[in-house]
Amino acid sequence: MPPIVRSTRYEHAINTLVAKRAEISGAIRFKGANLADQLQHIDAVLLILGYQGDPALITPLRRKPNRFRKGELYRLIVKHEAEGSATNKETARRIVQAKGWGVSLVEPIRHQGTKNWQRRKASLNAIHLN
Fold first, then answer.
1. Rounded to an integer, what distance in angstroms lies between the CA atom of residue 111 and that of residue 88?
2. What is the pLDDT of residues 111-128, one digit of tens each?
């Protein structure tokens, strides 16, 4: 029977566990999840695999909720502006109404794409002036 050959390099496993630890500690800190026992297991495996450093110093991951799919917000902005929406606030109101969300999301949606809206409107105005 040939000897079992094992790799002494576990970088891929360590990187995956570090990412998972950041995700779980973020869920504990920012969402109040009850997963502290899972962190102990991940820390133990990291130390077994030879992780250099203190696992407790890994930065928790904070995820922001995605309200739109990739490119969806831009398409909605263009659509509602083409329908006659004059201001950013009105465009945001129409988007929130079309998605069926509460009125409280108008301001966050308005500020989410404000920089792009202003840049695009400036370029459209420059085109119309020429």
1. 9
2. 776 555 556 566 666 655
- Give the whole-angstrom CA distance, residue 53 versus residue 34: 25
**0.85 surpassed by pTM:** no
Residue-wise DSSP of the chain? -PPPP--S--HHHHHHHHHHHHHHHHHHHHH----HHHHHHHHHHHHHTT--S-GGGSPPP-PPPP-S-TTHHHHHHHHHHHTT--SHHHHHHHHHHHHT--GGGHHHHHHHSHHHHHHHHHHHHHHHH-
Q: What is the pLDDT of residues 57-68, one digit of tens each?
A: 998 888 777 788
The token pair that represents 96 in the structure block: 């929130």
